[in-house]
Amino acid sequence: MARKSTFLSDFKAFINKGNVVDLAVAVIIAGAFGKVVNALVRLIMTNALEPALERANVQSLSQLPGGEIIVAAINFVVIAFVCFVVVRIVEKMKRKEEVIETSKPDPQIQLTSAITRLTEVMEERSS
User: Phi and psi at residue 66, in whole multiples of 5°?
Assistant: First the structure.
């Protein structure tokens, strides 16, 4: 008799799927990465623009009118660039794996060739 599916067992099956766990890990890492990039951009932009900020009597870039938007735009560009580089590296690794896979001989073809050679040898011996 089949087990009746319950809400809890369905939820457990859903959570145990690999893609849900992978997505959760990716979101957590992305959040942490975003904070690192934000701090880095604020530090670099504040130091790079320090003379201009002093003249404007402002301590950080985000205190300027529209400064938060500038910081967010720079963060976006940095994160997008890092994602682009990571995806490019992963694609390059996959292409190398595909080349290795295609360079391996097909076992089905090898077996067919061996059977054909065996058949020819046996025919020669019987004649």
Answer: 80, 5
Q: What is the pLDDT of residues 29-53, one digit of tens each?
A: 888 888 888 888 778 777 777 787 7
Q: DSSP per residue over 37-62, as a string?
A: HHHHHHHHHHHHTHHHHHHTT-SSGG
> Rounded to whole angstroms, how far apart are CA atoms 76 and 83?
10
Angle made by CA atoms 95, 96, 99, in degrees to the nearest 5: 85
Residue 58 contacts residue 64 (beta carbons within 8 Å): yes
Q: How far apart are CA 111 and CA 102, in angstroms?
A: 17
State the residue for tokens 């011996």: 125
CA dist., res. 60 & res. 40, Å (int): 13
What is the value of pTM for the model shown? 0.51
